[in-house]
Amino acid sequence: MSSIDMQHIADLAGVSRATVSRALNDSPLVNERTKDKIKQLAQEHNYVINEAARNFRLNQSQTVTVVMMTDPLVNQQSFDPFFMEMIASLLEALAKSELDMLVSHEPITDATSFRNSRIYRQSLGLIVIGQGQGHEQLNALANDKLPMVVWGVPTQGQAYYLVSTDDKQGGKQATQHLIEKGCKNIAFFGDKSSADSGLRYQGYRAALKEAELSVNPELDVTVPFVTEQSKNAINQFLDAKPQVDGIVCCSDLIAMSAISCLQEHNLKVPDDVAVIGYDGLSFTERTSPPLSTVNQDISQCAYKLVDSLVGLINGKQVENTLADVQLIERKSTQRN
């Protein structure tokens, strides 16, 4: 292999070292003809940029930190399948942008302390998953030089860039789907103190109102995200033998707990009670019965988060994103 360096490539191409560097990094500052010439010379001479040395010289990290803003008030856990699928999708999207990923499981509770942390100093940018109870802290970080994009819900006074899905519309779609299947006594399972669940509940109420169905407080059930706690809440509800024929669940994990508890109470899904989840997690097509769900397209959202962050890193104008959701019908709601 040749020991040729960047200066040799520059001399052969009749350009500066800086132009060679820009061309090999696909900079838009170099025209395509020059870029192709330099890449061809580099290939012919087996020249590859030493990324470690380059980053050292530039004193620039290529690591994006993903911060998990789990909400302790609703017992969210970082090992929730939703978070795991989001992390996997972010890893794939960042790799395609030739960026590394560091995951922090510690929510940002104090902006000043976070600014002084090693994570902050060594990151090229931040992707924050969820707002938890940290909206004000995220606002405090929004005007920093460190680029940041947040996955969450639109919030009044929000100063940071946001990627989100339409939770209210998703809750409405899920409820309308059960109404179309003939359900009239539809329960809502979730914790409305969580911002996204609160919006899904608004959609649930809106769908009932449009169908001229009453909102029964007894069918509004606070169900935590943690599996064992969710099962306790659901079993307590079912032990009272409520009149219910459909359940809108705020997550696929809660829906799985609901199906398990219904089966333990000798109730058939979907013949006795139809169940729909939320998130569109990959395991939902393999459950028994396969679970209908409101799909947020986690992979697409992860790529949008990365695209927005890369745009900010490159000094581009970035807009907030509110993506649509898609209802996926499976056997858990296919009533006779």
Shape: elongated
Uncertain spans: none
Proportion in helices? 40-55%
Query: Average pLDDT across residues?
Result: 89
The CATH architecture assignment of the largest domain turns out to be 3-Layer(aba) Sandwich
In angstroms, what separates the terminal alpha carbons? 70 Å
Q: How many alpha or pi helices?
A: 13
Strands, total number = 12
Domain tally: 3
Task: Please identify the structural class as seen in this structure.
Answer: alpha/beta
What is the CATH H-level superfamily of the largest domain? Answer: Response regulator
Query: For the report, how would you describe the main beta sheet?
Result: 6 strands, parallel
SSE series: HHHHEHEHHEHEEHEHEHEHEEHEE
Could you give the order of strands across the largest sheet?
Answer: 2-1-3-4-5-11
CATH class of the largest domain: Alpha Beta
Our estimate of the beta-strand percent is: 15-25%
Description:
The longest helix is centred in the first third of the chain and has 16 residues, at 81-96. Helix 1 packs across helix 2, helix 2 (17-24) crosses helix 3 (32-44) and helix 5 crosses helix 13. Strand 1 (63-68), helix 5 (81-96) and strand 2 (100-104) form a beta-alpha-beta unit. Helix content is 42%, strand content 16%. The protein has helices at 6-13, 17-24, 32-44, 51-58, 81-96, 111-115, 118-122, 135-141, 167-180, 195-210, 227-239, 252-264, 298-313; strands at 63-68, 100-104, 125-129, 148-151, 161-165, 186-190, 220-222, 246-249, 274-279, 292-295, 321-323, 326-328. The strands form two sheets. The protein has a six-stranded parallel β-sheet. Strands 7-6-8-9-10-12 form a six-stranded mixed β-sheet, sandwiched between helices. The model has no long low-confidence stretch (mean pLDDT 89). The protein has three domains: 6-58, lambda repressor-like DNA-binding domains (434 Repressor (Amino-terminal Domain), Orthogonal Bundle); 63-165 and 298-322, 3-Layer(aba) Sandwich (Rossmann fold), CATH 3.40.50; 167-295 and 327-333, Response regulator (Rossmann fold). With 336 residues, it is α/β, with parallel strands linked by helices. The N and C termini lie far apart (70 Å).
